[in-house]
Amino acid sequence: MSVRIHPTADVSPKAEIGDGTQIWLFCQVRDNAKIGTNCIFGKGVYVDNDVVIGNGVKIQNNASVYVGVTIDDGVFVGPHVCFTNDKVPRAVNADMSPKGAHDWKVTPTHVKAGAALGANSTIVCGITIGKWAMVGSGSVVTKDVPDHALVLGNPARFVAWVCSCGERVKLEEASGKGTCTCGRVLVKSEGRVQLAQ
Prior knowledge:
mainly beta; UDP N-Acetylglucosamine Acyltransferase, domain 1; 10-stranded mixed sheet
């Protein structure tokens, strides 16, 4: 296998790109980005300096992944998803001088393995999106999302638990367990939901 980069993409020679990754039309990947193996970046994806992306990640058309973002293995980032990285964004300082690189602080965001971010969702910086969590299309995520949680809306709110296959799973109150239509079992223990061993 080898890396496949479309001729229209602008990929920094200082970026690290894993084997089998495909970077399509009009993408931009900046200095020191670290991209794992077997990723697929659709048309117009922007990956900023120092972003870290794991293996098997799919980033759909026109998504913007800014400095401070870490994306773990197997994450799906839908079309036009936008990450932020500044809690108090301004174009200028209080004296109206242009903001420079040292006039603001990057606030990191972490998306854990297997999570899925629906089209046009906005991920406000400083949060963690848990393993196998799902963010509905158009949602604005302003706080941490637990593992296996489905969140929807603006601001995004918890609506259900989801299996790693993506289907909703109802957990029984007494046992804290629920079985997905695919046969996997989710269990809630000590406030955390995970796949049963």
